[in-house]
Amino acid sequence: MPIRIPDSLPATEILESENIFVMTEYRAMHQDIRPLKLLLLNLMPTKIVTETQIMRKLSNTPLQIDVELLQTISHESKNVSEEHLETFYTSFEDIKDKHFDGMIITGAPVERLDFEDVDYWDELTRIMDWSRTNVHSVLHICWGAQAGIYHHYGVPKYELPEKLFGVFEHKLVKPSSPLVRGFDDVFMAPHSRYTEVHAEDIEANPALELIAVSDAAGVYIAKSTDSHHFFVFGHPEYDTETLGKEYERDLGKEDDVALPVNYYPNNDPSLPPLATWRAQAQLLYTNWLNYYVYQTTPYDLGTIGEDED
Questions:
Q1: Which of 142, 170, 196, 229 is catalytic?
Q2: Which of 62, 71, 206, 305 has the maximal Cβ count within 10 Å?
Q3: What residues pair up with 223 in beta bridges, in sequence order?
Q4: How many domains is the chain partitioned into structurally?
Q5: Residue 142 is a catalytic residue
Q6: Could you tell me which residues are annotated as the binding site for substrate?
Q7: In this structure, what CATH number is given to the domain that contains residue 46?
């Protein structure tokens, strides 16, 4: 896909080195088509890493996509330079009058806090409320999924006895969903979290449906029946080495840190891990863009939300 991002964004050079089609702003402006407008609300502390991971997953479709980066201004980011934020990120006040075909809300390392205790919760809920009328389709990832399904549908999160950490086997609950078209009957996906949502809470809400679950990791994918909200409770965008870096980080803070499950060959951290989730992760993003954004979004972005109550 010709993904259109600022020429000087750090992700641009990385993606081009991987032979991913990154379109220059000049070339994009001279194509006679309407690109999809996508907003990425990046709540992760390692913003450049997350930008690159997600843009990589958006890069396998013939569609042209303009990606705009959004931050919360009520939270001070400590792991990225102020220059990077000022150069590439916008604020809600700057985009609140715009409309977008799609939006992605990332995870964040705040899951042990009550939602209302997160310092940017009020700003986040304002953005999520705005997305109901100004965004055609919203994809929520990990803590972003827990926050979204709680705010929009009242589904609570529950603390786990220990961190869910590793790569787990999943199965499809609704294999007919276009979101998982092409998925294997059993597939792998990475998780890294201390909390979870329960399948029975989702099944009890007629506005929601389960798509994929894991015996070991619980709910993986759910969506709203109107196909406006999609909730992915793992990290399909993770690179091969991401869980390993988290493990090494945690080792520096604690003495007793469990290895990520099903990650290192023979559970030996001296051996390089293998990515066993890359294909389903790519399909997930591509299917969402194709079936739930491109094929259903109005040509005139200004009409998004007109049929909403």
A1: 142
A2: 71
A3: 209, 230
A4: 1
A5: yes
A6: 163, 192, 249
A7: 3.40.50.880
